[in-house]
Amino acid sequence: MADHQPGTSRSLSQALRRFMALESAGGIVLMAATAGALVWANSPWRDGYAALWDTRFEVGWGPLHLDERLRAVVNDAFMTLFFFVVGLEIKRELVAGELRDPRAVGLPVLAALGGMVVPAGIYGALNAGGAGSAGWGIPMATDIAFALGVVALLGHRIPPPLKVFLLTLAIADDVGAILVIAAFYSTGLSWPWLGAAAGGLTTVAVLRRLQVWTLPVYVAVGAAVWFATHESGVHATIAGVALGLLAPARPRTPDEAPVTERLENALHPWTGFVIVPLFALANAGVPVSAGALGDALTSPVGGGIVLGLVAGKLVGVTGGSWLAVRLGLGRLPDGVSWVQLVAVAALAGIGFTVSLFIAGLAFEDPAMRESATLAILGASVLAALLGIALSTATRSTGGRR
Prior knowledge:
This protein is mainly alpha-helical. It contains 15 helices and 2 strands. The chain has a single domain (about 10-185, about 235-395), classed as Na+/H+ antiporter like fold. About 70% of the residues lie in helices and about 5% in strands. The protein is globular.
């Protein structure tokens, strides 16, 4: 960790350990929810699975009215809390964590950039001008919970500095994914509603400036920002990220934890153990057969996703890291070898949650979305197995540099 102000380094270290431990445990629950969705969608009760998530959900009145299917409620409303926690973690890391120190941030940020550009390039090369060209953002993502869940299973094969590297890389990757979603997967912008969302965010900033700390006020304004963003054409989860970034990251008094940390402690268990697994349950349930799996993995869309996540992430993260070291913008963490970093680069190819999320935004055709889902599942499993194999081989050779 970078140097911090006296009296805060211990709490920040504890906060980071709590975050990683909860993400690791949440990754195990996420795997179980994914397996449950696949079993349910391929069981004799599969019609019930489809009927449940297609149930219509209506709330509100007049112009303030939402009419969505249950799956969309999970993806657009519940996942906003997930992205809110992501925003809180990004804010904390920017103010007092790994992303604050240029000496520490160069390596994971360039690694994340390489891990986004190379997979997107591979996918784009295979799908240029085709029906699946909109899916180029799918293989760019790294799933923090899933990847840290695998890291937890590996135990001491992954040294602690490399775990921090993976977490920082995944956070930088989340920033990139958020920008991609906002810029390229938002359609039909409504400027009046976008202005209303901006006004709500400005209200939050003013309330914070006036030191108004009444939680119900922020909940009401936050709900209004979410609704305005939803109606504006920008994906509603971006509101969660923006609100998280506006949360105060410094304590008001020396004896008080920052608002970001208190909100994370309150919400992170809900997002890690309930919301993200619920998202997987709602979106990972696709029919699986040898033919469907073969078609998914050999189609331009599936091939782009698999090659992008498995090969592109490994090459991109490793290449970005090498470039950072070569240019003097970063250095390998103490006690970490290049072979070990390559193993973690493979684990960065686990792109499950955000990849599924972007696939849902990129494809309206259910068949194409199901094919992309199968490819994401297959690629994430392959990336996990490759990372485990490389980590095991690294351990057996002593992790030579």
